[in-house]
């Protein structure tokens, strides 16, 4: 309490310090007068009386100083004094201040922007209750290098029964069903879940109830839970909605609840969605009968509070061992849980960390630049500092004042950077791939603000180091003795040269990184997908599976639609297929070759599967290698046939003719159907441009239809006309069918490259900034050095050096800097590139061309930046240079 | 260093309070003279350190000051103990005597006393 009162008094004194000091002065004067009188009375002569009085009193000034220090807040006062002094100094050299603040704003702003992405995607916990307890449970098969596969329904039921480490477990599978009944038919994101789903997220419904165990029983009546966003947009926030029916794929579901908007289903992130029991789903309800070896259903769970991760993994291990004892199909599989956030973020961590590293390098270069500027300043300020030291300022006091100045600069730069980031983050978000998790929550928030502020203070500390060390070492005597122009010590020159070389090294790292990404992106763009994409438009049509329940109906619909579309002018080249390579999720199925020995236990051969109408190969420009393509004669009543890709043929039929052989495969429930191979076609990139073409099995759409599919049309009519025609013809068959995801193939493929494009663009930008900053740094160092060496150059010229000699001298010095920087930067870049090799495509992390280009670029930029000062030096008038000083 | 000065200041404050307690109203010089008289050489040098102590005590409300005429008809500031100052003096004196007694006991202790 007393200490607190003292603090208050000190703060009060800060305002009233004059009064206290005046009192003290007055009292001391009074005291001296009385003492002098007394001394006079004692018989001392007047001057001696006064002198004795003063001696007896002690050092009055020191007493006042000490009183002041004790009664006020000297720290604050000094700070205020330093800040005011710094502001005065900065306002006197606005150009210098502007350069520093801008450089820093660029560095901090870029860091803040990238950090806001990293924070939203990687760091901020998921927006669920106790998100750290949410796990994704998958099945791994180490022998086949499969990780995180889904569960089969029977295995899931076992897991739900046997575990005692989870408080809730749920499977989930999502697709789009057609919502009709109110307004336009709409494709609606539908998540088929088991009843534990809402307990996993520990979320209470906004209205009505969540799904309960009865809803998950066989024979229960179909019910649906709406998301709040859908409830508001499509049902006008109707509070009496509970109990009313809606139609999903033309089947009635009773609405039992509305979930708050805060519940976003992981993996299926649409705001408008519905949840239905898995057993009521038109597709997945058939999959629950699939045998244990089909791993299709992702499982999420909530960990019981207080269960340590190793106990959970042990339980899951015991669970898998139990399953394996009961069924050979489960042998070799182990259940494993991972934090949900980690699974959601997936492989985004390396590219985001790469960007963060890159942007940190940019800031480091910016700091080196500023440090260099400050060093040149410190050299010209050395006289001021020498005077202050001579007048009694301690080194600590001077360092503190310099630090205050730099912290102020850092703060200005930081604030400008935050503003920059705040303005540019929305643009950055537009640039980001649309499927980025948490994309909508990326913004400059308190965490980003704090990060940037801390970063700016750290930066000011960093760029203060060199000038402060220099100031601390400077010797006031020699500084004062030296004339106005000199005063540059060898130490400071070496420091500035090292900083410049360091900048070049860092720029080399950044440029090498962006060069590698740029080259691999160019490689990626030059990859032919294996099919012709120009003038190809695709549109997705999906059939409601309650109304169109039988495969024969799907086949009839597809045939009808194809006849109609192909009859339109300019639309002859039309086909239907599912799924499309690259754009759709691949359907991977196991297969076996009739006549080959069965593979070893636990090993299954797998390949991707496409169901396509006969025209598909023509529309997509996939060429026939041998045998025949499908024809319109291939139907459900003729023998089943298949076409395989070259990759499959060469891998599984080495030195054999696959034509006429039989393979067993098919989309469930036709998993074990024998099909005759009638043709081999050229390879296509089926998963992504970055992955080499995989083994593909094609079947005629008429023999293996889907409930809808992708219509692809090659036509010169343009996307809008083609889309219009497809829609008209579809609605002529059934006006309730949604036609979605209409895209021209080139645009759709380009969207699949959003990530590589994003990181290439960003890293390229950072590389450019780094190059610019490094060039500025070199320019600054060389021109400063030239101005300092004017006298030396003058002497050389009087001794007979020609202007070109001088120019060469300066250029050689900067070339040495560049070579030093490259000698550090290139090995560092090589080491770093190896870490990020996974992000590269088609080139080695030590690609010699890239590194040679970077070295050459930096060397020439350095020489270019040094050229102006070199020319200036060459024009030195020796007489003038010698006379100055 | 700082530690030592604090102790001295604390002692000085106690002396000031006690002097005012005994002699009533006094100006700064008067206090200095009395303390010098009583304490011998302790305050002979550096009498000026008295004034920061006076200012601080007044700020804390232990003493109050007002203008008045000094012996030689100069204007001087006279200090006086306040009620809270008297209370402060009482507790400080008790504390001081206690500490002094304890320290004194330590000074007089002999090895055989502790056996």
| Total number of beta strands of chain A | 22
Largest interface: A-B, 24 and 22 residues
Which sheet architecture does the biggest sheet of chain A show? 6 strands, mixed, barrel
Mean pLDDT of chain A: 84
Written description of the protein model:
The complex is a heterodimer of chains A (885) and B (115). Helices cover 54% and strands 15% of the residues of chain A. Chain A is α+β, with helices and mostly antiparallel strands. In chain A, a hairpin with a 5-residue loop joins strand 3 (166-180) and strand 4. The model of chain A has no long low-confidence stretch (mean pLDDT 84). Classes of the chains: A alpha+beta (885), B alpha+beta (115). Chain A binds chain B through residues 5, 9, 20, 23-24, 26-28, 30-31, 33-35, 37, 56-60, 63, 66-67, 70-71, and chain B through 27-29, 32, 44-49, 51-52, 54-56, 59-60, 70, 72, 74, 76-77.
How are the elements arranged and paired?
The complex is a heterodimer of chains A (885) and B (115).
Chain A (H helix, E strand, L loop, with lengths): L1 H40 L4 H12 L2 H12 L2 H19 L1 H30 L10 E8 L4 E4 L3 H10 L3 E15 L5 E8 L3 H4 L6 E2 L14 E5 H8 L9 E4 L2 E9 L13 E5 L6 H4 L11 E5 L5 H18 L7 E6 H6 L3 H42 L4 H37 L14 H28 L2 H6 L8 H37 L9 E7 L8 H17 L5 E6 L8 E7 L11 E8 L3 H5 L3 E4 L13 E5 H7 L9 E3 L9 E8 L14 E5 L7 E7 L4 H15 L5 E6 H7 L2 H35 L1 H9 L4 H33 L12 H27 L3 H6 L2
Helix pairs in contact in A: 1-2, 1-3, 4-13, 5-12, 5-13, 5-14, 12-14, 12-16, 12-22, 13-14, 16-22, 16-24, 16-25, 17-20, 22-25, 24-25
Chain B lengths: L1 H22 L2 E2 H12 L10 H11 L2 E7 L5 E7 L1 H26 L7
Antiparallel strand pairs in B: 1-3, 2-3
Helix pairs in contact in B: 1-3, 1-4
